[in-house]
Request: fold
Amino acid sequence: MRNYVLLYLLSLLYAPALMSSMIVRDVPNIHQIRECLLRNTNLSEALFTIIFAYMNEYFIRTTLNRPLVSSNHPMTPSAAAFSPDGQWLATGTYHGLVRIWDPDGIEKQSLDAHPAPIRSLAYSPDSRLLATASDDKTVGIWESKSRSKLAILQGHESHLNSIAFSPEGGHLITASDDETIRLWDVTTAQNITQFGHHTDWVCSASFNPKDGQQFVSGGNDAMVHIWDIRSKNTIHTISEHRNNVNTASFSPDGKEVVTASDDKTVGMWSAKSGNIRRRFTLSDEVRTAYFNNDGDQILIATDSKNAYIVGAAEGDWIQTLDTHAKPTHSAVFSATAQHIVTVNYDYALLWSSLYKAHQKSKIALF
Reply:
C-alpha cells in the first residue's frame, strides 16, 4: 500500500511534464495499473504505467501544446474535410496550401492549391475528387488519388466561403462574398446558374443529401433560405436569427436544417415547413454546426476554446471538447463519426472517439 501511494504521488508530479512533451496513444487504464502493481516486478515500469494511465484518466481533456508541424509549409489551418471513405483528411491553410493526412494524423502530401487563403474544402461522395474554395475567387477540383488538378472554376466576383458536392457528385455549389450562390457542372467545369436573394455575404450553402434539387444557404444578412434548384425559387425563408448565419446544412435524412449563428445560437428547423424544432443557446458566437451521418448528434464549434457534441433529438449535452487556447472556427465529423477535426487560427486537432460511450482521446495535433 505504501508503494502504491508513493507511485501515485510521483505520477501526479510527473504526468503534466510528460503530457506537454508527447502525444499519447493507447495509454493503459486503471485495471492495467492494478495488474502492474500486483506484479511489482519493476518499480520504474509501475511508475510510468501509472503516469500514463493518470494522463489518460485526468489529463486527456487538456489541450496538448506541441502541435505536429509540417516541415514544408507554415501551419495556419483555415478549413478541413474528411473523405467519405474514411481514408483521408484534407486541411486548407491561409497560405493557400492543402495538406492531406491519413486517419492517424500523418501528413501524406501538400498541394500548392491557391495564391490566397482557402476557406472551404469538400470531397465528392465517392471520395474521388477534392474541391477547394479560395479568396482568389476560384474553385479548384483535384483528383484525390493522384492529387492532380483537373479544373479551375471561375465566375465569382469576390471571396468564396463555402463549397459542397451534390449527392450524386455531378454538381458543386459555392457561396461567396459577392452575395451570390452558384451551381456548377463538375464534368464541364461550367457555371450552370446562380442564386441571389441574400443581401450580404453568403457564408454557407449545402445540398439536401436526399434531394439533389434542394439546397440551403445562410449569410451575413442573418437569413436562411431553402431553395428549389429547378425553379430557382426559395421554398422557405428563415429570418429568426439576429446576426450572421455562418453555416446552414441538412440532416442526413433531409428532414431538418441546422444553422450556426453569431447570435450565439444553433437552430434546428423543419426542412418541410421552415419552423423551429429546437434552439441551443451558447455563451459565445457559433461558427459551425453539423449533423453526424446518423443524424442523432450535432457538432458545434464556437468562439470559445471549446467544441460541443449535443443530441439532436432531445438536445442533451453529450460532450465538451476542450479544443484550443484560441477560438475554434470549425469542427467536422468524419463519415463514420469515429474522428473529429477541430480548427483554429494556430492549428488543427484530430480526435478519435467512441462518442456513444462518451469517451475520447486526442490522437494528433497538426
